[in-house]
Specification:
The two termini are about 45 Å apart. By secondary structure, this protein is mainly alpha-helical. The protein is built from 20 helices and 2 strands. Strands 1-2 form a two-stranded antiparallel ribbon. The protein has one domain. About 75% of the residues lie in helices and about 5% in strands.
Length: about 500
Amino acid sequence: MTHLLTCATFLPLIGALVLWWIPKERPAAIKTTALLASAGTFLLGLVPAVRFDVATAGIQFEERANWISLDTMRIGYHIGIDGISLWLLVLTAFLTPLAILSSWTAINQRIKFYYSLLLILETGILGVFVSLDLILFYVFWEVMLIPMYLLIGIWGGGQRIYAAVKFILYTMLGSLLMLVGILYLHRVCGSGGFDFVEIQAALRLQPNLLSFNEQLWLFLAFFLAFAIKVPLFPLHTWLPDAHVEAPTAGSVILAGVLLKMGTYGILRFCVPLFPQAVIDLAPYINILAIIGIIYGALVAMVQPDLKKLVAYSSVSHMGLVVLGIFVLNKQGMEGAIFQMLSHGLSTGALFFCVGMIYERRHTRLIVDFGGLAHRMPIFASFFLVITLSSIGLPLLNGFVGEFLILLGTYQAQRGLAALAATGMVLSAVYMLWMYQRTLLGPISIPDNQSLQDLNRRERWVLLPILAMILVMGLYTTPFLRRMDTAVDNLVQTIEGTRDYRTGYRVQR
């Protein structure tokens, strides 16, 4: 167990290096090696979930080593997980082999480079979720950008260059502000290192170490980087372009995991490090979240393109996650984490489904379909369950997170809960209407008469997700129990800040 997280994090990178030793004339070997590397990572990622101690309050599976030591600063290799990062680690390791499997026949050019980028991307994302040193976190955060930029820019659609450049410019802008915040936080705390645990301990021991104004500006520096990644309204405009132009696997990883990096960063850094700023700005952020929920749903309702519809649905659903975090109670935060996992599964599966029919018809316009259930009944069955999961039907995974978020929001402010509930109603409207226009009714387009149903490989892509949708909807206790202690610590931080509110306002 000593180096479990290191092995899980860097196994995909090792797999990417191995791919370059395989001749490009052997595409089957390249694909199989990539699949085995990602599957091995998933098996390693399951071990922390099984052996996680629900009674332990701190970081588990912790690893420390010196990385860069200078007279004025120390950067360490410090990784570990708690109840906030555990399931995001598993989600990343779960979706990546499915994304590789979905690309088996869709990608026919520069295969070695493509699968290498997917594996490098997985290492970058896993590194973000396990890093406990701020500079190490920033390095993995930036590493993740490069493979996603190349995946969109090389294998994307007609406007891929525009979408890729927009994606990287938005993300890098926020990242640079976060780096400035990291450097300032290091200078103020004066510990000589960038270790998150040490910085948090210093701020707890000396509540007035940061003035309120310092907390406010540092929070904004971190929050902007995370809000862009979520994306929170009005910083969402890069997302539809990136989704539409990205290849299917890129869209799955982008929606399933990359968006969660933003909300994870808020929970991991913003709430425990700058609680006073979080409390003061929470009402304004909740307003933005509500706008995102309703706006995303309304815009999704009028989209003619299936990928754009799912992309705007992500704006709506991730707005709900942000709302759950900033109501600042246990139900809301646990619901937000659970909804992050549920959204990763259901939206990832929706992009898989869109990619499968795009391979057959080379179009994503809803008007080009209709009546597909007659020719593709197995696909229609999968698509129906995934759609119902996305709209939060009881007994499926989407219901649990949404219910907890609404419960937490209702306890904090009833008006916000009512507005958030309208977004859920609208999501049922646009998702069911999309399903009706795509799968039901007569076949009006002659090209749809010859469509083939899902093959064995495509079924194996969707079956694991369908199984997890049912497991998370019916048996939620193992997921929520592992979050309890970490979320309790966050709530106690917020409540303690309420008690010492004036202490945080002492100017340095």
